[in-house]
Amino acid sequence: MPKPLDEILSPEILNRAWKALFTDHAIWDAGIPRSEMERNLLLHILTLRDDVAAGHYRPAPLRRFAVAKGDGKQRVLSALCLRDKLLQKAVQLVLEPRAERLFHHDSYGYRPRRHVSMALERTRERVRCGLHWLVDADIKGFFDNIPLKPLRRCVRDFVADARLMGLIDQWLDGGAAHTSFLATHRGIPQGAILSPLFCNLYLHTFDSALDAAKIPFVRYADDFLLFTADKGDAERALEFARRRLDALDLQLNAEKTRVVPSSPDVVFLGQPLPRAGKPARLQTGGRRLQSNLAQRRRMGRNAVVKNSGRVRRDS
Question: What gap in Å lies between CA 288 and CA 131, rounded to an integer?
Fold first, then answer.
């Protein structure tokens, strides 16, 4: 079985990666515009492949720019050159199917064939079932604050390929947003192709802990809901989540985290949630079923009485 990096550098994967980025108009590399790269497309792609295989590849510096957020604050996005995007896309094509077999089914963000409407439907389903007390939570500055040292361990254990990890280490080193007071390197670039995959890999431990504690949840990247039947359980679930995130060197956003009953005042992924109501009463359905069965038994007895008056004549 080929090592992951060998598969990443295969003609099939590189071709799929190029097709996925065919309409991207970023420059190929510093001093090489997209138009010039296209005139010698095969040469540039083969040179990239050979540089990676020989250990000579070095990513270009990230271009960073700020965009305004809805709350008036700013989010710093990072732009990669097309050469680095192509390589990251090839890595994603190989690693993502493996990660999908690992991830929890109640994690929805940045995953193939999963979208916001599925997360919202799962949320409404749980509220309808009577789990209407919520922990409405957000991880504080997740992409900017994720600690790189434990993230590297997590990714290294997952990829199980030293050469590929050497490649990923270069991207993590170049994308670190800042160093904290205790000299902890933090942050992965928002806008990089592999950052969402790294996000879900790192938070998979958190998802697994919630699942083991039997706390129903829906997570979309760094936003999540925990579902309970009463306020006390919700407060205990919040404390559990806080401890588990603390073990990952992450914090909840105090301004955006609360214990609250489901209602249209609670907005998750841009949509208001249903008002808390009573859970579906199985007793009513059971009585209806018993009534239907009794009616069928009466109909069956009537049919027997009618048929008993007939005389069957065989010739």
Answer: 25
